[in-house]
Each structure stands twice: as structure tokens, then as C-alpha cells.
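Same chain as my last thread, 258 residues:
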Amino acid sequence: MLRALWTAASGMAAQQLNVDTISNNLANVNTTGFKRQRVDYQDLFYQTLREPGTEEGSGNGLEVGMGVYPVSTQKIFTGGEMERTDAPLDLAIEGHGFFQVQLADGSRAYTRAGMFRLDQDGRVVTPDGYALQPELTVPADTQEIVVNVNGVVSVRTSAGGVPTDIGTIEMASFSNPAGLRSLGHSLYAESAAAGDPVTGIAGFDGMGQIRQGMQERSNVSVVDEMVGMITAQRAYELSAKAIQTADDMIRISNNLRG
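reply #2:
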């Protein structure tokens, strides 16, 4: 019965983490480029009371499980809905890939949130001021910015003028994007689980295309998350009930009289 207490407690802890993850998904339902997460679980080790195949009793043996534990939180990189904004530096990726930005410490991070703007020097940066990589600088007298589906950036400096290419937005992809490390601020960092980044041009070699004047909304489904929340709550209640039942059995045993 003491075993049942700890087993049920592991179930309650697992469902608490599940609710925490679902809550974060729901909180970011309107976060541009956000990718929902889920918790993956495994059963804990088993206490073997009788080895399988022994002569006594059943040949299947006798084992008792010790509960559950979370293995990982996995990011689900399915595409979100596209929202039209018509802002020239709002860029969305249709398909696989990430934008690359340089952090303050010089390291590189990756994002699906293409909410770019210009800084005081005309560089294309994120809302936090991290420069897009390779770096792009827009001339001060620019009147129109055009980004095609392959990431080629052109500007017009006068009405009716000929567009001038100022650079190309380079994309990055990973063999296992779910293994990327979350940094917050809609940014991800490389990890051993994600593999080495592969860079290329949008629309080629499996890279998605770039859509100007669009934003990618989060891929969170409110209905699915609410159903998951209810399921987690009921599982939590059942684990709590198991603890109560084990406690009642212990109390009854303690009250036995010879």
C-alpha cells in the first residue's frame, strides 16, 4: 500500500507538468511563430515479485509498476495559419526552415517569428534588436521594400525607380527541429539533439518559401488544448483518489485488533 502512495503521487506530478505545458500553449495562442509543446512520458521501473518462466505459479511472472515520469517536452513544428498584415518587413515562412539572427553575445539563434523592423542604422532586426543574418541594411532614402518568395530583398529609392537588390535572406533548417533549445522571445538555439544547421535559399532544397506582408500565427488549437486540460484534470483526480484509497487501506490495517 505504501507502494501505491508513491505510484499515485508520480501520476499527480506527471499531470501537473502536463497542465503546466498546456497552460503555456494557451498563453501563447496569439504569439507569432509559436509552436505548441507536449509532454512525453514513460513508465517507471517494475518491481519483480516473481521472475517470468519460473516453475511456481504462472509462467508470465509477477511484476508491479512503480508509476510514471516525464521524458521530454517535444515541440510540434507544424505550420500555423497565415495572417495578412501588409507590413513590408513582416515575413512568414511557408514550409520548413528558420530565420537566423545574431544575439548580443555574438551567437546565432533561430526563429519562425518574422516580425522585423529597421534600427537606427537601417539594419533589419527583430523587436528585441537582434540583427537578421546575413545582415541586411536598407538605404535611408528607401521608399519601397520588396521581398520575393526566395528571400531576395529589393528596394526602390524613388517613385517609379528601378528596384535594386540589397541582399538575400538565408534560411536554416535542422534534421530534428523538435530538439532545439527554447530561449524565449520566440528564439531557439542549436543543440546536439537538433543536429547541425543547414543553410540555404528559401524555396530550394526543402526550404520553405518566404511570404512578405504576412505573419505566421501559433499552431495552438484552443479546442485541443482545452480537451487535454480536462483529461489531465481527471487523471490528476484519479491519482489523488488512488492515494486516498491506499490511505484508507493503511488506516484499516492499523485499526485491526487481534
